[in-house]
Amino acid sequence: MRRGTGAIAGLAAVAAALGTAELVAGVFERAPSLVIAVGDVVIDSVPGWLERAAIATLGRADKPVLIGGILLISVLLGAALGVLARRRFLPSAAGFVAFAALGVAAALTDPRTTFLGALLVGAVGAAVGVGVLHLLIRAARADRSAGAAAPPAAVPAGGARPGRVRRSRRTGAASWSWPAVRPRSPSWPGWGLPALRAGAAGELRAAIRLPAPFRRAAPVTAGADLDIPGLTPLVTPNEEFYRIDTALRVPVVEPDGWQLEVRGMVDEPFTLTYAELLELPQIEADITLACVSNEVGGDLVGNARWQGVPLRALLERAGLQEGATQLLGRSVDGFTAGFPVLTALDVEEAMVAVAMNGEPLPAEHGFPARLVVPGLYGYVSATKWLSAIELTGWDVDGYWIPRGWAKEGPIKTQARIDVPRAGGTVSAAERQVIAGVAWAPTRGIEGVEVRIDDGPWRPAELAERLDVDCWRQWYLPWDATPGRHVIAARATDGLGEVQTDERTPVAPDGASGYPVVEVEVEA
C-alpha cells in the first residue's frame, strides 16, 4: 500500500472521528466539544504577549483561526497515523485513543463538563476513528491483493471489463473507490446541533417581554445622529457590535434554569432567577463600550442602548462587609473580571444588563444577563453570560490580570476619524467633510479638534450630546486642495483632559495617541 493511500485513510478516519464526536456533543446537552475544549485550553495556556499579539493581528478572526489551526493539526496527525497504519495498525489505533484522551482531559478543565459526558464523546470519537481507519486500510490491502492476483485479461474495445480492477498504464497502480466513509468538510455535524440549540434559545428570547424601565434614556434626535455618509451611526446595531471574549463557542444558557448569585463579602447573599431579575426596577442608558485591545482609530468599540438592574441596588440589598473592595463578575464558562466596588456604587448607570437596543441580549453578547459598566474597558468589567457577582478583596485577580494587563482599566479619552477613509481618494472639485466619533464614558466629550498636515488645530462641530457615557459624532467642513494630506484628530473630555499624543501600545491598559489618516485629493 502506498503512503498516499494510508494518508488519505488517516484523513478520512480523523474526519469521521471528529464529526462523530461533535455530533455526540451536539445531541447530549452536557457532553462537550473536544475541539472547543482544546481551544479553550490553548487560550488559557498561551503567554499573555502571544494572546495580545493574536488579538492585535487577527481582531475578530482570532477564534476562527484558532479552530482552523486545531483542525489542521488534527488532519495532519490523522494523515501521519494513516501512513503508520499501513504496517503497524495497533500503534496507529493507540494514537487515535491518545488524542481522544487529550481532548477529554481538556474538556474536564471546564467546570460545566461532566466526566461521563466527556468520556462518552471521547470514546465514541476514538472508536469511530479507529473503526474507519481499520476498514479503509483493510479495503486498500484487499484491493491491492486482488489486483496483484488477477490474471491478465484481454480488454475489450471501449473500456475495462466489468468487475475488473482498472490499472494505470503508466504506474500499474490500481484505481478504486473508497468505501462510503469519506473525509468531511470542516463544518462538523455536531457544531450544527449547538447552533440549533442556539436557535431555540433565540426563540425563547423572542418570547421574552421586557419590563418598562423606570428611567428611560433620552430620545435620539436628528441633532445627535448626524446624516453624514461613511460616519459611524450613533447606535451600533447588535449584529455589528464588536465581540472580543474568551469563549470559542457561545454559551447557550436557557433562562428558565439560569440563576444569578450575589455572594462573597456580603451580609446577606442571595440568588435571583431570570424572572426575578426582570421584576426588579430597571434603567435604560446609552453606553459606549471599548475593548482594551482596540488600537488608536480601531473599530473594537461600539455604542448601544442597554437596559438592566443597577448594580448599586443589588449591592445595597446584599450589604457590603468591610474589606469588600472589588466586584468580581463570574461567567457560566468560568471567565472572571473584577473592578473597584466604588465604581459600582458611584457610576449610576453600571448595571446587570438584560437588554441591548430594545431586545433581550443576543446570545453572543451575554444572554441572559451581563455586566455593563461605563468608563471601564471590558477586560475588567464586561462579564458576559453572568452567573455570579462576588464581592472580594483587591488581592483577587480576574482572568486577564495574570496575563499582563493592568489591574484597573479606565477607558482613555479617544477620537476616531471615519471620513475620509485612510488611504482613500477624494475630489478637490467639491467641498469635503472630515468626520468621526469621540468617546470618554463617565466624563463625556466637550470638544474635538482636527489638524491637517502641519496646520493649526481647528475645532470641529459636535453633534448634540445624548449621554455622558455615550460617544459623540463630530465633523469639520474641509476645502481640500490637490495632493496627499495627513489628517489627525484629538478629543477633550468633560474634565478638560485633552487626548494625549503619546503613542502607546494596547498593553497593559489601552492604546493612546492621535488617530491619523492619509488621503489623496485629486484635482
TrEMBL record:
Oxidoreductase molybdopterin-binding domain: residues covered: 248-400
Membrane-crossing residue ranges in chain numbering: 65-84, 89-109, 115-137
UniProt signal peptide: none
Pfam families, A to Z: Oxidored_molyb
Record flagged with keyword Aminoacyl-tRNA synthetase: no
Keywords, alphabetical: Membrane, Transmembrane, Transmembrane helix
Keyword Membrane annotated: yes
Region feature Disordered, mapped onto this chain: 149-178
Protein name: Molybdopterin-dependent oxidoreductase
Residue stretches of biased makeup (Low complexity): 149-159
